[in-house]
Amino acid sequence: METARRLAFSRLAGWAVDDHAAALAVYAVTADQLGPDWPRPDGGDPRAFFERHFCPILTGTPPALLTGYYEPEILGADALGGAFQYPLYAQPDDLPADRPWHTRAEIEAGDLLRGRELVWLNSPVEAFFAQVQGSVRVHFSDGRIRRFGFAGRNGHEYRSIGAELIRRGEIAASEMTADAIRDWCARFPERVEDLLRCNPSFVFFRALDLPDGSGPLGCMGRPVTEARTLAVDPEFIPLGAPVWVEAGASGSLMVAQDQGSAIKGAQRGDIFCGSGPAAGERAGTMHVSGRLVTFLPRALAERIAP
After folding, report:
1. 74: Cβ–Cβ under 8 A, 6 or more apart, which residues?
2. Neighbour tally for 106: CB within 10 Å
3. How does pLDDT run across 50-105, given as a tens digit for each residue?
4. CB-based contacts of 282: which residues, under 8 Å, 6+ apart?
5. If 89 and its partner were Cys, which of 113, 150, 192, 202 is the partner (CB 3.0–4.6 Å)?
6. Residue 92 DSSP label
């Protein structure tokens, strides 16, 4: 069990200058899903709301590893044809709840999802990255934009293709980014299939009807917010909890509204960086040491860290 200890708000670097109103607005998006111990926004001063109702709790041992994720924007087509050869799939009807389904390699080699295609993309690497991110905006030649989000996974552990390329000596760890992976795949297209299949995890999608200005849906079924939503490990940080995300002499209050298969541990967070290429560039290069401090309701904090 990870050790938990209380901190004073004065120990949070940059707390006094954060945009507490912005953080409170994001907390309010999912607050109705929380239990009775968790306060609901009351229309009062946002900073006072957090300081009155919550206690900052440090769980685990910093430094935290902070990375980023985003919603890709990709060209697509409704049907197979031309460059559009790489589908995103709906979840199969026979997906078991109590054990892993087939691996990525088995799914692809056996064409096990035939007939479950939702949309066709023009790059196997971008289709893979869409699975890693768990959401995507697809642009069609007629100007339409359709959005797809996470529906489920095959139950196998995620394995990083970036880490695999480092292990193979193909890309130096200091140079590893999403664009470095794209460049490697463009140079060695005949080796892409083998690389992607080293990750046995496979993600299924569903079509979403969301306003254009909305973020994609997080695991709580509500839209996530750029620079304010954090993906966490729910074994250590409750979903819906405010989390102080600190790096160096500054910090920002985010809300744990998402999770990811690669996000494990009390001091591990993945920050939602927005949608599109610029967001992808920010997310792809984010690899920061910091500290995560979870805000728990005072009654709950007393039970965890008396």
Report:
1. 121, 122, 123, 126, 130, 136, 137, 138, 139
2. 15
3. 999 999 999 999 999 999 999 999 999 999 999 999 999 999 999 999 999 999 99
4. 68, 70, 273, 274
5. 113
6. P
> Cα(76)–Cα(292) distance, rounded to whole angstroms?
38
What angle, 0 to 180 degrees and rounded to 10, lies between the N-to-C axes of helices 46-53 and 20-30? 60
Fold held by 71-208: Ribosomal Protein L25; Chain P (2.40.240)
Non-local (6+) Cβ contacts of 32 within 8 A are 40
- pTM score: 0.91
Give the C-alpha separation, 205 to 109, whole Å: 20
For residues 124-149, one letter each, b for 16 or more C-beta atoms within 10 angstroms of the residue's C-beta and e for the rest, the string is bbbbbbbbbbbbbbbeeeeeeebbbb
Q: Which CATH number fits domain 4-68+216-304: 1.10.10.10, 2.40.40.10, 3.40.50.300, 3.40.640.10?
A: 2.40.40.10
Q: List the structure tokens of 226.
A: 């750029």
Measure the CA–CA gap between 233 and 239, rounded to whole angstroms. 9
Domain boundaries, the chain: 4-68+216-304, 71-208
